[in-house]
Design goal:
488 residues; mainly alpha; Rossmann fold; Serine Threonine Protein Phosphatase 5, Tetratricopeptide repeat; DNA Cyclobutane Dipyrimidine Photolyase, subunit A, domain 3; 3 domains; 18 helices; globular
Amino acid sequence: MSPAAPKPPVIVWLRQDLRLADQPALAAAVETGHPVLPVYVLDDGDHPLTPGRASRWWLHHSLTALARDLKRLGGTLILRRGREPARVIETLAHELKARAVYWGRRYAAAEIADDTALKQQLGDAGIAAKSFNTSLLFEPWTIRNQSGRPYQVFTQYWRACRSAPEPAAPLPAPSGIPAPTPLPASDDLDDWALLPTRPDWASGFTPMWRPGEAGAVARLELFLADRLHGYKAARDRPDRDGTSGLSPHLRFGELSPRQIWHALQHHLATAMRPPDGDADSFLSEIGWREFSYSLLYYHPAIAREPLKPQFAGFPWQPDAEALGRWQRGMTGYPIIDAGMRQLWATGWMHNRVRMIVASFLIKHLLQPWQDGERWFWDTLVDADPASNAASWQWVAGSGADASPYFRIFNPVLQGKKFDPDGNYVRHWVPELGKLDRTIIHEPWTTEDLPSSATSKTKAGTYPPPMIDLKAGRDRALAAFASLNGTDP
C-alpha cells in the first residue's frame, strides 16, 4: 500500500502581527489539522508604507525572535521578498498547492485593495483565503455614531468604544505548529540588509530595546508592576521612565491590544491599590491608536493630504536649512534639540516631546507637517502608518479633533514645566550639562556658554535660537488666519 499523500499546507501570511499568542490567523491555521507555513514577505516597493530605516532595524530583530519561537514549536518561518507581496504569496500558494491562505487585516486603502484582489485570485484557483483581526480592539467599521458615520472627535469615539462589548479574551499560543515537508526555499534574513552597516547609527538602539514577543510581554509586565501607578502624572515627564514603551511592540504586532486590555483588567482586579485614573489614562493611549486606524481606514491619504480641505492652501515656507537644523537637534531650543537627538540615538522620542518638536516645526518654522511625518517615519522604531500621520495632523490643526490652530507650544515654558530640573536636556544635550536648572532651558541668557550662529558648532558650544519665539508665533497665527474658514 502506497503512503498517503501529505496534506496540503495552510499558509499564514504574517505582516503586522509577529507573534504566536493571540494570533487568530495562526490559531485558525493550526486548528485545520494541516501543516502550517508562516511566511513573511519583505515589501520591496517604493511607496509611503515601505518601512523606514529604524523600522527595518526592528524588523530584522523581530523576525529573528519570531523564527526562534516558531522553531521551538516545530514550525519554520519562510522569508520571501518582492515589490508586490500579494503576488509573492499567490505564487507560493500555487507552488505548494496550499489548502488555504490566512492573514491579519490591514487598513490602508492600497493594502485593502491588494488583499481583496488576492482573495479573489486564490478563490478562483480553489484555494481558501480568510482574513482576521489581529491588530485592533475594534474594527474601524464597527464603531460609528448614531448617524452611522465614523467619529471625528476622539473623546466621542473612545466613549463609544468603552461602551461597546469588551474585546474577546486573547488566544493562547499554539502548543505545536506542524511544518510541511518538504519546506519551500526561504531567503536568508541577513541578505535583506535591514541593519545599518557603516556608520552604525543604530548602536544606541540595542541597550534600550528587546524586539520580539518575549520582550513585549516582559515590558508589559514591567509597566503594570512598576509604572502604571502614577502613570497619569509621570507620562508627561521626559526626565522619568514613566511611559509603557510598548509602542514599537504594538507597531510590529509582537503584542496585541487585546492582550494589553485584558492584562490591565486582571492587574486591576488583583492589585491592592484602587483605580486612580492611571489605568484610564493609559487605555486612552491605546484608544488613540484605535482612533488613528479608524481615520486611516476612512481617509486613506491621511499621511499626504490634510483631513480639513482648507489646509491644502496653507502658506508653508519650505526651508531645507531650517528642516535640517530641526532634524539634527540644532535649533537652539534645548527641549527641542534633546528630543530630536533622543530620536536619532534610540529610535524613539517621549510623547510629550513629540508634540513639542512637531509644534515647533509646523508653527514656529512654518515647515510642512508632511516633512516632519516623513522624518519620523524614517527614524522611529514605532513608526505606525496610522498613529504617525494622525498625530502630525493633530498638531498641525488639519486633522480630526485637531489641536486648535492658536495652540502653539512655547518650547521654553514646556521645558520648564515638564523637565523642571533639566535632567532630560542634560542627558541629550551634553553641551548644556553644567548649566543650572534656572537657565538650562534658556541658555542664551548666560554669558558662560560659548555659542555660534551656524550649525557647524565646535564641541562644547551650543547654537543660539534659530528663531524668535514671539515672531514665530505671530507669523504662524497670521498664516492660520489666512486660511479660508479659519478665524483670525
